[in-house]
């Protein structure tokens, strides 16, 4: 069985996944830990966003308009999702819990195998801003 938790950054995905994985003895996998491997596979298949990102610094990726970042991030997750799916099929011999912001509802909905239970977290703004500030990259920032 496969369980997935999607949702925005700082919505509580990792916390909930960790608790569920421990209680139900699931293998907890963070999509963030697979991204480099999935991106390498996408680059080998000449996928455009992954090829574009290989030559960019983190600042070139993240220091752009929010609209540009969101659009590219969305397309990036769409681009690597087939590789994520292949990974899950290869590792379905045990119950898995995969969590990550890239588990977009329309992508998960299209999964035919393996069988999946999916939860997407959408926190209220105050919760999210509070938790952004607790991240290393958000310390001292004003998230208004």
Give a written overview of the molecule.
This protein has about 140 residues and is α/β, with parallel strands linked by helices. The protein has a single domain (about 1-130), classed as Rossmann fold (3-Layer(aba) Sandwich). Helices cover about 55% and strands about 15% of the residues. The chain has a four-stranded parallel β-sheet with strand order 2-3-1-4. The longest helix is centred in the middle third of the chain and has 25 residues, at about 65-90. InterPro entries: P-loop_NTPase. It comes from Streptococcus constellatus. This is AAA family ATPase.
Q: Classify the helix fraction into a percent range.
A: 40-55%
Strand content: 5-15%
- Overall SS class: alpha/beta
Shape: globular
**Gap between N and C termini:** 40 Å
Give me the count of strands: 4
CATH C-level name:
Alpha Beta
CATH fold node name: Rossmann fold
Element-by-element helix/strand order: EHEHHHHEHEH
Major sheet size, sense and barrel closure: 4 strands, parallel
Overall CATH architecture: 3-Layer(aba) Sandwich
Give me the Rg, rounded.
16 Å
The CATH homologous superfamily is named: P-loop containing nucleotide triphosphate hydrolases
Tell me the count of domains: 1
What's the rounded overall pLDDT mean? 88
Main-sheet strand order equals 2-3-1-4
Put simply, the count of helices is 7
Which residue ranges are poorly predicted, with pLDDT under 50 across at least 5 consecutive positions? Answer: none
């Amino acid at each position: 069985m496969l369980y997935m938790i999607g949702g925005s950054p700082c919505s509580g995905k990792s916390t909930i996944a960790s608790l569920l994985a421990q209680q139900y003895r699931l293998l907890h996998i963070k999509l963030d830990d697979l991204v480099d491997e999935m991106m390498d596979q996408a680059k080998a298949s000449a996928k455009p966003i992954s090829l574009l990102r290989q030559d960019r610094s983190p600042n070139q990726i993240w220091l752009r308009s929010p609209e540009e970042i969101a659009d590219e991030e969305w397309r990036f997750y769409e681009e690597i999702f087939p590789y994520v799916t292949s990974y899950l099929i290869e590792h379905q011999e045990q119950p898995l819990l995969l969590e990550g912001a890239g588990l977009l509802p329309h992508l998960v909905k299209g999964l035919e195998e393996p069988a999946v239970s999916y939860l997407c977290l959408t926190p209220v703004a105050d919760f999210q801003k509070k938790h952004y500030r607790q991240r290393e990259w958000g310390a001292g920032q004003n998230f208004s």
